[in-house]
Amino acid sequence: MFTGIVEELGEITAVEDLGDASRFRLRGPVVTEGAKHGDSIAVNGVCLTVVDHEGDEFTADVMAETLKRSSLGALTVGSRVNLERPTAVGDRLGGHIVQGHVDGTGTVLERTPSEHWEIVRISLPADLSRYVVEKGSITVDGISLTVVEAGAEHFTVSLIPTTLDLTTLGHKQPGAPVNLEVDIIAKYVERMLGAGQGATR
């Protein structure tokens, strides 16, 4: 489990085509400290497994399904990525519960700068809109954010200087794809309510 608090901006240093998958090599001195084979690291919100680790770099295999359902397939050598290690039991939950299982992708539609923050509008797949509510939580490229406005086809988030400086959303321009993970609690509530309604019929 992750919390959506990005630990560092990493970089893709190599991409190897494996046919039905890709192998990424990524540089991230913070997240690789103490890393070992089999550990999990979230890359732009996608939970990946460490295959190998050497110095401040690690490799991870990304299967075709993940490449198709996330924005990882658009990454190339030199791409910057958000990196986060799983939260440890007893740690503070600084963001919200994030699984690292991408529900879909959106597109940055518009950036509106202000003096101390920036509003970013992002497209929202129709099948995810019911899970996104004003002042609720959403994960964008692995970043835990609060929804400012929730529409049927888009939502907005407000980014503080720290988020702009330390994550990919600081430089992603309109047209750029982003990974989205909605609040898991909303999906569980929907499932339970559906089961309950079915049981009373």
Descriptors:
ATP_synth_asu-like_sf, 6-stranded antiparallel barrel, 6-stranded antiparallel beta barrel, EC 2.5.1.9, riboflavin synthase activity, 201 residues
Could you characterize what this model shows?
Lumazine-binding repeats lie at residues 1-96, 97-193. It catalyses: 2 6,7-dimethyl-8-(1-D-ribityl)lumazine + H(+) = 5-amino-6-(D-ribitylamino)uracil + riboflavin. Pathway: Cofactor biosynthesis; riboflavin biosynthesis; riboflavin from 2-hydroxy-3-oxobutyl phosphate and 5-amino-6-(D-ribitylamino)uracil: step 2/2. By secondary structure, this protein is mainly β. The chain has helices spanning 64-69, 161-166, 184-199, and strands at 8-17, 21-27, 40-43, 46-54, 57-63, 80-84, 104-113, 118-123, 137-140, 143-150, 154-159, 177-182. It has a 6-stranded antiparallel beta barrel with strand order 1-2-5-4-3-6. Strand 10 and strand 11 form a beta hairpin. It is globular, with a radius of gyration of 17 Å.
